[in-house]
Specification:
Structural class of chain B: alpha+beta
Number of strands of chain A: 8
Oligomer: heterodimer
Shape of chain A: elongated
Radius of gyration of chain A: 11 Å
Helix content of chain A: under 10%
Number of helices of chain A: 0
Largest interface: A-B, 13 and 16 residues
Order of helices and strands of chain A: EEEEEEEE
Structural class of chain A: mainly beta
Strand content of chain B: 15-25%
Chain lengths: 75, 454
């Protein structure tokens, strides 16, 4: 659900998911926090929107460029 | 001396400890996670044992797996390196209970210094100077606010179970306090399994100066001078040097003598480091004590010609300081270490990947400590340290120039590295002059952004 892809900039494992389907997010809001190389890496919303889908679970491994969530454009 | 020692670590420090064991004619036993299978330093050990999957808690932090190897290999001691289980008193006690020696201070010391507020209280009682700080924070907001006001802003929120600069959050004023406390609690929970945190006054533009300590099991404690580790990013050290530049020698050595005598009175019994902050006015205050070998031990080795890992192992084997260390420890020249990490030089975000090229500078006066080789992969399971580059030269100026050249000759492809950032720091007038401080790393970033934008 949703046209806007939220991608992970790097590989790591999902530590915390801060957004759920239906949430309104603004550009640069932190949606998901990855853990990688003993660091927390925030994944932020690329633009304003409504969360249409969260495609990962906490603890899951993700790779660079993976789509981790989708946003629906604000109508 | 021990016959066989299990090295319960990975990467650069495992490689370093294995080398020290070899020079003592002790058989090294290595362990590795699935992610580290085939790592170059494993070939230097006599025996290697797989201890589990990549994630640290399933391998290098898995005490049962490590203790199982201790038993099946018949090793009579464990060297924990730094990080992972190095400062875990439960693990140290389990090693001792298995009939082997834990190469580090006795477990009561890991306990006493591991709880950071208790360590501060202990050291304050023994006359050590302290920066303003709080006890463990209360749980209600109002009490926390009054604790913060008593310490004074700007403030640093730190995990009680912490170390290594992990989980420290600063708050400039009262408005930023609540968010900082919340973030620090969450980080502390994840990294140290307790939400206990405390406050310390944030001393801006101060310097991080630490003192190398070595104790034996017969009541002997000595210091081996100081290191300056002020250049950091995200509260993690990046450039370390010995001796500390632009300090009064007599004051610094006087403080080192005092620290050694406090620890002697308390009965400290192996390697350790006392971390202090030096404020702009030249006054020192106690930060914390690390009860292990430090990442940056090599700069002390360079200026004193003392092999600290060998010294630590000999002390753990029951030898006396009198036979381990020379009667007078001489300092010679200046040493600087830079930590080359797999990360974006400007955002500091980690950059895992395969080392398509990995050619550290080859020169007789450049020392490299690394656990990697070309073709190996930097995974996301561990920290981003690729290699330490250590230079020893007659003067600080020459050491900086040589380090800059060595970093320029370091060829890495396949991952991003912080080499450009390290060289930018080395090139600042502040670093060149010796006027280092803990915010120096972050001052390099804005000037860099300005360059890119305009």
């Amino acid at each position: 659900m949703g046209d806007i892809e939220v991608k992970s900039q790097m590989s790591g494992s999902v530590w915390k998911i801060l957004s759920k389907v239906g949430d309104r997010v603004n550009e640069d809001d932190v949606m998901i926090i990855l853990e990688s190389m003993k660091m927390e890496i925030p994944i932020t919303a690329p633009e304003d929107g409504i969360v249409g889908a969260v495609l990962v679970k906490e603890g899951q491994a993700v790779g660079e460029g993976d789509v981790v969530a989708r946003l629906v454009e604000l109508g | 001396m021990f016959r066989k020692v299990l090295v319960a670590n990975r990467g650069a420090v495992a490689s370093r400890v294995i080398r020290a064991l070899r020079s003592l004619h002790v058989q090294p036993v290595a362990v590795y996670s699935d992610a580290d299978a085939g790592a170059p330093y494993l070939a230097e050990a006599d025996e290697c044992f797989a201890i589990g999957p990549g994630p640290a808690r399933e391998s290098y932090l898995n005490q049962d797996a490590v203790l199982h190897v201790l038993k099946s290999s018949g090793a009579d001691a464990v060297h924990p390196g730094y990080g992972f289980l190095a400062e875990n008193p439960f693990f140290a006690r389990r090693v001792q209970a298995a009939g082997a020696q834990f190469i580090g201070p006795s477990s009561k010391w890991l306990e006493a210094m591991g709880q950071k507020t208790a360590a501060r209280e202990l050291m304050a009682r023994h006359g050590m100077p302290m920066a303003p700080g709080s006890s463990v924070l209360a749980s209600d907001d109002e009490a926390i606010l009054s604790q913060a006001r008593a310490v004074g802003f700007p403030i640093l929120v730190k995990p009680v179970g912490g170390g290594g600069g992990i989980g420290m959050i600063s708050a400039a004023d009262e408005r930023a306090l609540e968010a900082a406390v919340e973030k620090a609690r969450s980080l502390a929970q994840r990294a140290f399994a307790t939400t206990d945190i405390y406050f310390e006054r944030l001393l801006e533009e101060s310097r991080h100066i630490e003192f190398q300590i070595l104790g034996d099991q017969h009541g002997g404690v000595r210091h081996i001078f100081e290191r300056d580790c002020s250049v950091q990013r995200r509260h993690q050290k990046l450039i370390e040097e010995a001796p500390a530049p632009l300090v009064d020698r007599a004051t610094t050595v006087g403080l080192a003598d005092r620290l050694a005598s406090i620890l002697q009175k308390l009965g400290y019994d192996n390697i350790g480091t006392i971390e202090m902050l030096r404020d702009k006015d030249g006054s020192f205050s106690f930060l914390e004590m690390n009860t292990r070998l430090q990442v940056e031990h090599a700069v002390t080795e360079a200026i004193t010609s003392i092999d600290l890992v060998v010294a630590q192992i000999r002390a753990a084997a029951g030898e006396r300081l009198g036979s381990i260390l020379p009667a007078v420890i001489e300092r010679c020249g200046h040493a600087i270490e830079a930590r080359v990490c797999a990360e974006d030089p400007w955002t500091h975000y980690p950059s895992p990947g395969m080392l398509q090229t990995f050619r550290p500078p080859l020169a007789p006066d450049v020392r490299i400590e690394s656990g990697y080789a070309e073709g190996r992969t930097i995974t996301t399971y561990y920290d981003s340290l690729l290699a330490k580059v250590i230079i020893h030269a007659p003067t600080r100026e020459q050491a900086i120039d040589k380090l800059d050249r060595a970093l320029g000759d370091f060829a890495v492809e396949g991952v991003k590295t912080n080499i450009e950032f390290l060289r930018a720091v080395l090139g600042t007038a502040a670093f060149r002059s010796g006027a280092v401080h803990t915010s120096l790393g972050s001052t390099v970033l804005p000037s860099r952004r300005k360059m890119e934008n305009g």
